[in-house]
Each structure stands twice: as structure tokens, then as C-alpha cells.
Amino acid sequence: MLTKIIATTREFSGIRHYYSLMRSWLGNGFGIENFQHWLMEYGMGYLETKQWWMPLSANQRPYPHEGVDLYSYMAADVSQVKAGQPIPMICDGVLAAIHKDFIGFTFLVRTNITDPNKRTLYLAYAHVAPAPDRELTVNTKVYQGDQPLVIASSQNKCPAHLHLSTFWAKPDFDPLEFDWATVNENNKIELVKPVQG
Fold this sequence. Notes:
By secondary structure, this protein is an alpha+beta fold. It has one helix spanning about 1-30, and strands at about 35-40, 70, 70-75, 80, 85, 95-100, 105-115, 120-130, 140, 150, 160-170, 190. The strands form two sheets. Strands 2, 5, 6, 7, 8, 9, 10, 11 and 12 form a nine-stranded antiparallel sheet that branches. The protein has a three-stranded antiparallel sheet with strand order 1-3-4, covered by helices on one side. A hairpin with a 4-residue loop joins strand 6 and strand 7.
């Protein structure tokens, strides 16, 4: 019984450690000079139902938002992320899959954080591209603070931005079968709020 309690404590300290890393990562603003904080419009947050980049008459999402969108921030004045902006990794992990999305690519990173049900925490960095000096393939290791990804250039109405989703995946989850169109119906994963608070 003592082993089970110790294991459970370690697993929950892993998710607490992730949230601590996430707060620091958000607060650092990708290392942008004079960064103060992110600006969030309705529709950018987790489970929100509006598309923040669309006119009010046509901005309903087909499903609640699966993560958070990072686009505008306050530095010396209000600014927006730009295509090519490097994105530091939140924590160590392994690149588990690469999928095309409607702006660029989604990179699924499998962390070493697990829960008491033997599920693994994944991070989905979406609307991104590999950094120009990086060759990324499945099973590439990534490290906290490393910058293997950049914001992808957008060719549609939605401006270039970073979408970040976080989810628990069951042991039989295959990251190569991940699909944004069915993510809300996938019984092998459980989306979770990427940021506490």
C-alpha cells in the first residue's frame, strides 16, 4: 500500500510540475523583449465556443475550443506573434506525431508525466512549422526551453498564432491516428485545461 501512495504522490507531483512549467513558460512570453502578458479575447480560451478571428455573425465553433490560442500580447505596446516566431518547449518529451492542420502542422509531444491510471500527458503544439535549422521526425527528443518549432504562416482568414492543447492519453492511444476533426469523440484521450487558473 505504501508503494501505491508513493507512486500516486509522484504522479500528481508530475502534473503540478507541468503546471508550474506552464506558468513560467507563459510568463516568459517566448523571450519577447519587454513582454508583460498575453492578451486573451473570448474564443481563445479552453472550451470557449467562439472563433475569435471571425465576424460576430459567423464565429461559432463546431466544438468547444480544445486548448488556448496565443496571438496578442502586451510588451511596449500591443503586439501580435508573427510567422517565424520561435516557440520554446514547455517541458522535455518525445515528438510522437506530426499532422497537417489548417494553418501549418500539429506536433504532438509525449511527456514523461503519467497519472494513477497509467495515462500519459501529451502536448499538442498546433499551427506551427519546424524551425528552419531543424529536421524533426517522429521520436525526436525535445527539451524544455529548446526552440524546434516556429509559428506557421497563415494563408487563410485566421491569423498566424500558436494553439496549445493538453491531454491525457490511454496506453493504447496511437498518436499517429490523432485527428482534430474527431478529437472530441476520441475515447482514448481526455482533453484537459492547459493552464490552471
